[in-house]
């Protein structure tokens, strides 16, 4: 049995060549079994192959594809956008330029969100420092905790 360790996605999971159950697929992908079934039902994922007893089984490539979709979802890509991306990938190499463009646009959205979050983090860090200063030198009449403009609201 060949086992692949996924390091490039910061998951130190070992992915076997064949995943023999939906519960194992759920464990490897971080999704619930119900979510995997739902994604199959709405054609976000291809239907899994079935054993003679009707139970699903998955290939390593299918699991890697599911993990990639979870990353797209975690970064705000909609299910419809993910379905479109998957449909394009099913069409083969001729759609690589379109997929590249879609991922480039999505990456730009991610970068904008990261910038917004970093700015918010700076404000929260400023506020935390202000509270630390107040705890060591309590001057409750000083409500200035805005880095650029004095605050007139004592709650903030």
Provide keyphrases for this structure.
156 residues, mainly alpha, Multidrug-efflux Transporter Regulator, Chain: A, Domain 2, 2 domains, three-stranded antiparallel sheet, 5 helices, 5 strands, elongated, disordered N terminus, DNA-binding transcriptional MerR regulator, MerR-type_HTH_dom, DNA-bd_dom_put_sf, DNA binding, DNA-binding
In words, what does this structure look like?
The strands form 2 sheets. This protein has a 3-stranded antiparallel β-sheet with strand order 3-5-4. A two-stranded antiparallel sheet has the order 1-2. Residues 1-12 have low confidence and may be disordered. With 156 residues, the chain is mainly alpha-helical. Strand 1 and strand 2 (14-16) form a beta hairpin. The protein has 2 domains: 3-78, Orthogonal Bundle (Multidrug-efflux Transporter Regulator, Chain: A, Domain 2), CATH 1.10.1660; 106-156. It has helices at 22-29, 33-41, 60-74, 79-90, 96-136, and strands spanning 3-5, 14-16, 18-19, 49-50, 56-59.
